[in-house]
Amino acid sequence: MEERKPIPCPECSQEKYFEGLCYWCKTRKERERYQGLTDEQVETTVTNIISKIETIDKWEKVYKDFKGLLAYRNIDTAEIATAAFAKNIFYPATIYRNASADIRDKMIDLLLQPECKDANYLLLCLAACGGDKVREVFFELEKNPLPWRKKLHVPPSVYAENGGWSFDEQGNEFELIYQECYPLQISSQTETDNAVKVGTVREDSCTICGCRLVNILTIDGNDDRLTFLNLGGKVDIPVCPSCASMCEKTIIRYTVDGDSTMEIIEPFEDENYVSEEDLNKLALNLLTLSKTKEPVYYACGVQETCTIGGHADWIQDFQYEICPDCGKKMKLLSALSWDELVDSCEGTLYIELCTDCKVIVAFHQQT
Fold this sequence. Notes:
Blueprint: E1 7-8, E2 15-16, H1 23-36, H2 39-51, H3 61-73, H4 78-86, H5 101-111, H6 119-129, H7 132-143, H8 156-161, E3 165-167, E4 173-175, E5 181-186, E6 196-205, E7 212-220, E8 234-239, E9 247-253, E10 261-267, H9 276-283, E11 287-289, E12 306-309, E13 331-337, H10 338-341, E14 348-354, E15 359-365
Antiparallel strand pairs: 1-2, 3-4, 5-11, 5-12, 6-7, 7-8, 9-10, 9-15, 12-13, 13-14, 14-15
């Protein structure tokens, strides 16, 4: 049998074994297509989504169009929510992000039925809605569960996390995501922007596997774009690039404009899988912070990306860590697609933050 030979992508020269654009160029062009739509074209696409709403769970054109418009055009989903509710469609939950008060209240009425069969989906959809009334209903159901609660694995406060928020034992709401989102984009080699540096190789090494450590991110919290993070200065986030995907999590304790320390929790391996060549490639990445902010669901679009702030595109399930110092839920700081950092790497590194305790937790997910 004749050995297959790699074919260079016609745009980026990335080697692959099929004709046409590589995966990265193809998804980039999809993103650019949604970003380039006129307002009239966006409206037409929304109308088409509404007319074919019953096919949205097929993960085909209607689903992809909804996902693309939400991520890159920040569409108002109120009309889509009305159409979906009329046909008893409760997926994806983000359909109901901008649901009208009327649709929200109708979902609440369904949820409050003692034998509600769609409680799982309704909780997710209402979490996407958010707001005071939803929080009050969730808090009441947390204290006084209805019979359908026995069929669910977690209480309403955990469902709320899927919407990027939750509440404490007194019913006080807190946010788990930042409402501003900046992607990390490939820049030209001549461009200098030090607001965020990615993959700076350090001199010290991992005590588990011996791999050189990297500051996976160095974030200048004083940059005007990043003041919403409330960091108060420049912060290094060191990880072991080998252990980061092979451990339960990494705990980082940071000081502003000073040293950060890291601790690997429950390593699965003690072998170094990252070569010096891999480290060099990581260090030579051209990722810089976007000049302008993007929609809060930007990371959930058609293209794998790295972001500061906003919602994450969870590979497995939403996961908000508990701060090891104060016991409060941590806030999503960043989601870094390994594929954007090192060729042929899989999964995403999620980074969460407690500014009160100056603690960061990083953990990996992949399919």
